[in-house]
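Think of the structure tokens as a kind of shorthand, similar to the way a musician reads notation: each symbol stands for something richer, in this case the local conformation of the backbone. In the example below we present two proteins back to back. Begin with the first one, reading the sequence and then the tokens, and try to describe in your own words what changes along the chain.
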Amino acid sequence: MIQSLKEFSKVKIFGIDSEVLNRVCATVEKTELGKHTYRECFYRMFEEIQKRYMEEGKSPRTLADIESCNRLYVLADDLPYETIADDYIEDITPAMVKKFKKNIEKFNYLIETNAKKPKEGLSHSRLNSVFSWIDKVFNYAYDNGLIEHKSFLDDINLTKYGGVKNNKHVKRNFLSLTEFQIFNETFDRLASSYFHHGIEKIEKRLYGTEFDFEAVCKFRSLLYKSFYNMAFYTGLRKNELRGLKWKDLIQNTNGFHSIKVEKQFNDKCNRLIGKVSHVRDPKSYNAFRVVCLHKDCYEVLDRLRKFLLAYRKYNDEEFIFMDFFVKNPKPIPETNLDRCFKRVIKESKIIENSVGFNGSNRNVTIHGFRHAACTFYMECGMEKEMVAKILGHSDTHLIDTCYREFVQVSDLESEKLETCMQFFK
């Protein structure tokens, strides 16, 4: 535990250098005996959370969210509104916190999260995050005896203030089976030209003149197509897919193939826990699971495996979605996956040719493949309890509240995955 802000100022944290922290320490040294500023409480809370995350190997994305929410809207020096950062937390009243939160909303006007072009301002979800982490600092102060009355925490709660919440019920922000087939056809048509772009200039510089240009383009086409098909047919999260290894692939006696989900790969925000990348446990206990692979999904994955065998790159202990032909080989970066996905969606004109559900625009993402898998299996006749198990949910609540209205069950298709259903029983 860091005992003082002087000691804390020796480390550089979330983009704030030691010079800024020294100014903070100088301010704190002048505070009244026994009192603590909001800024001081935040630093100490953050240090404790960071230490715990480093010890437990948790995802640092939450750390990044904490620091950005406070750095940008509470601790910055050039805010257009009066901040509570240097007020004594013992003297802050609920009215002061409410006024402060309303000023955050006022000077960072809300935007629609489904806007086609990014705009300045805050989305409803981002506003909720900012308010939530402000509340957690006061929770930390209460737990450490700096705030006497617990009712204070209820009085400052404005996390639902402002904006209109986007509801999963409203939009079908994922692809149907027919749309995914169009997606695959468009990907096949674009893959060659898409992966040719930039490879010759970058990879030849890394690997020399003997570099097999065509082989790398073919490899990446297979790699990305396998990833998108696995995402659609299994409903695995992006980092769960990136954490899969070839040894996790299981050949079952009934002729079906399945995959074990035991780890997920993470390489975002790892500076906050002192790592370049790391492999950690899935999101929850229920996320440890075995998922049966649809035959179309396995066929694409098998083509990737055979390619790796032919080029002597196959290894049971290696990640399935490892991109070997980069300076630092690692599972496909999320930014590359998103960029390719958006390009294919745009060229396929799936969004343009679809009718907006309930009069709202669709915002299809890779994570939407998870929702697509849910509706796909339900439309094939699988019971919702089995679908929840595939997705790694603890119960069927999300299926009942978010996806049921999109499902169109056909009696003719109810026996398509009967063998698959038996596997999960």
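Once you have a description of the first chain, move to the second and do the same.
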Amino acid sequence: MERHVPRWSQLAPLLRRSPGGGSRLERRLGKAADIADLRRLAQQRTPRPVFDYVDGAAGDEIAIQRSIDAFGRVEFLARVLRDVSAVSTSTTILGVRSAFPFVFAPTGFTRMMHAAGECAVARVAARTEVPYALSTMGTTTPEDLSVASGTGRRWFQLYVWRDRARSRELIERAQACGFDVLVLTVDVPVPGARLRDYRNGLTVPPALTWRTFLSGATHPRWLFDFLTTDPPTFASLESGQPVSLEVLASKMFDPSVRLDDLAWFREFWHGPIVVKGVQTIADAVTLADSGADAIVLSNHGGRQLDRAATPLELLRPVVERVGDRVEVFVDGGVRNGADIVAAVALGARAVLIGRAYLYGLMAGGEAGVQRVVDIIAADLRRTMQLLGVTTIAELTPALVLLRPA
């Protein structure tokens, strides 16, 4: 074998040049191959209390880890020799076409993650043609979000307050702004034990102590936004002096909520009602009997009752009992398009994603949220093709197994 010293003219074509287009942020986001990469970027770009608010859960964080692990137990049964050259990811969610079988879930205090907040997420959702749910604990008003999202589909999520008149006022404001679905979150009679927030001293609005200032100083972009924009407060509340999240929630949420209250909301909400936070088959049946249009199997991302039921494990038995009467959604632990494919194959009409897009928001604002969609959409299409299906309707339980824990 002869050896020779390579000439530059031979090496130059082999050297990979970094693409020159786009901003530094866009290039950084473009290198993120999955949601885990965006999570790492988010951790680098936000102070610890902010990142922990998104990343953390209740107690020992067992419930959220079980939710993630459940998707790891999914086994696909791929069909081969199928023409998968053209794939459609569209479906209907509560009677309206959606480009993908997922919804941007409601999340609280979103402008703390990035100054662009809910409006950035809503713009991405509108471009993607999927619904976006604004939280009662959001940092943008229904009116402002309506302007930002344009013709995008808007849902409004409500925690049932002690002050029912205020609840009704909020709902009527949302309805007047074109929100067409009401999401009642029912798994928060009292706040969960979110230990990371307690240890970090997180308050609403954020209190700028020396500790938080120094933490922010190591993340100058976030600190600049914090100091030069209106402080992130819950737009639907009168925040007043900074208080802990636990104190605020305990004053606001109503622990006396009962099934009868669903009928009260029906009196003045004129669209579909989704009940979020269902964790047993018995409750799913009761809600179907009571006229809910859809339910979300959810343990609140593990942020309420630690060791709560794992939503994915509940999905198939719940769909078998009530799937002919209500649309069944699921959330918790969704990190890629394959997770969405698995949930839909097991019977979910759609999947709610929350932490995933918040990692993108923290990593790069609106562009980061768009990167989340790009990653998930590509993975969803690829997984469908590898499974041998071309439409969402073809995703059935015959294509998936949930292996024992």
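Compare your description with these statements about the second chain. The chain has 18 helices and 14 strands.
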